[in-house]
Each structure stands twice: as C-alpha cells, then as structure tokens.
Design goal:
A hairpin with a 2-residue loop joins strand 2 and strand 3. The protein has a single domain, classed as Beta-Lactamase. It contains 8 helices and 4 strands. Helix 2 runs antiparallel to helix 4. The radius of gyration is 22 Å and the shape is elongated. Helix content is about 50%, strand content about 15%. With about 200 residues, it is of the alpha+beta class. Heme C binds next to helix 2, helix 3, helix 4, helix 6 and strand 4.
C-alpha cells in the first residue's frame, strides 16, 4: 500500500471507531434504569429502617415473628425487585449473618473496602461482569443505626432465634455508625438495551 493510502486508511478507521463509540456507551448505560435502581434501593433501605424502628423502646426480646418483620422482608423484597426488573439485587456484608450475603466477587470486596475507608461515600456505579454477562453494578452503603443493635449488637446479647438459626453468624458486635454492609444491584446490558428500546 502506498503511504498516502495507508494514512487515508488509518484516518478512515479512526472515524469509524469514533462514530461507533457513543452508540456503544449509550447502549451500555441507560440513565433512566440506573436512576430507577437508585430509587428502589432507597425505598428498600427505608423499609428496613422503618421496621427496625418499631422495635426501639420495646423491652421484649425479638422473636422469630419480629425478625420476620425486619431483615427478612428486605431480602424478600430484593428478590422481588430482581424478578420484576431482570436485575440481580443483593445485600452483601463482610460480617454476614446469612451466608448468601457473603462478598461474591473481588469487586464487591473492593467496594466494601471503599465504603469502609470513606464514610461519606453513599454509593457508586461500576462496570461489572457477572456469570459471563456484562452490565453495570450499583453499590449503596448500609450503616448501623441504634435500632439495629437489638440483633446486630453484642454477640452474647443476640436474640435466641439468631443464635440458633444462624450458627455461623458474623453480623454482631456492631456500633452505631459502623458500616453494616451494602446493597448491590447488577443490571445486565441486554436488559438495558431492551428497556431503552421500549422507551418512547
Ligand atoms: C429483629 C432482629 C434484627 C434487627 C432489629 C435488625 N436485623 Fe439485620 N438481620 C437480622 C437477621 C435475622 C438477618 C439474616 C436474614 C436472612 O436470613 O436473610 C439480618 C440480616 C441483615 C443484613 C443482610 C446481610 C447479612 O448479614 O446477612 C443486613 C445488611 C442487615 N441485617 C442490616 C440491618 C440494619 C441496618 C438494621 C437496622 C436498621 C438491622 N439489620 C436490624 C436480624 C435483625
């Protein structure tokens, strides 16, 4: 190839790459869906805080019944959100109570470490690949409030149902303001393209 053609070829390729780039970025990130995930997680977090606050001031030890009214509904709602939206909504914690909530990827461990190091960091997005599927993952911190200590406070003061039901429990000895864990929402790219296509 003569040099002039070679240069023309290179410029042509560069233009093609530049033209394709914005489309690729747009397909990967649908801001409306990301915003929806943020909103749903805020509601999920308010659900737990609201339920936990009903325990405050109660002298009776939480039972299986009251437990069902605090963190279990949060897990169930997370599953519902996953099904409804085609997302993967999880709670993740280094010190977990339910082993299903252990850190699942290297990136989730890094995210937890970031929340630990930066108390003012509320949440962030990053590109992620889960089960071979590319997408975006949103992480949102979960802090310990006074009302959480009834079940996540001192080890020997945990309710009986926790001691019995979670023999490998690690989610105790927290103090108010500690990082309890995080929510993680994975939105696969395919899902986002479909949603984007459906939007007027
Ligand atoms: C009545 C007892 C109780 C109270 C109060 C409570 N939790 Fe929990 N929490 C549990 C139990 C039991 C689980 C495990 C649920 C499961 O099996 O999915 C759990 C699980 C969690 C998880 C999921 C990660 C893990 O460790 O498995 C998070 C996050 C969490 N709690 C945060 C909180 C926060 C924040 C508060 C206060 C706003 C709170 N909890 C109050 C009992 C409680």
């Amino acid at each position: 190839m003569r040099p002039i053609y070679r240069i023309a070829f290179c410029i042509g390729m560069a233009i093609i790459v530049m033209l394709l780039q914005p489309t690729a970025t747009w397909a990967a990130v649908n801001p409306a869906e990301l915003a929806k995930a943020v909103q749903e997680i805020e509601q999920l977090d308010m659900l737990r805080s609201g339920l936990a606050s009903t325990l405050e001031g109660q002298t009776a030890e939480p039972t299986m019944k009251t437990m069902k009214e605090v963190c279990r509904p949060v897990g169930m709602k997370a599953m519902e959100l996953s099904k409804e939206n085609g997302w993967q909504v999880k709670q993740i914690a280094t010190k977990y109570r339910n082993p299903a909530h252990a850190p699942d990827t290297l990136h989730s461990r890094i995210a937890l470490a970031q929340f630990e190091q930066k108390p003012e960091l509320m949440g962030f997005w990053e590109k992620a690949t889960i089960d071979g599927q590319a997408g975006d993952r949103y992480y949102r911190r979960i802090n310990v409030e006074a009302s959480c200590l009834a079940c996540h406070g001192q080890q020997n003061r945990r309710p009986q149902f926790v001691k019995e039901g979670y023999p490998q429990d690690l989610a105790y000895d927290f103090n108010v303001g500690d990082l309890r864990g995080m929510y993680a929402v994975f939105i696969p790219e395919v899902q986002q393209s479909i949603q984007a296509a459906l939007q007027p």
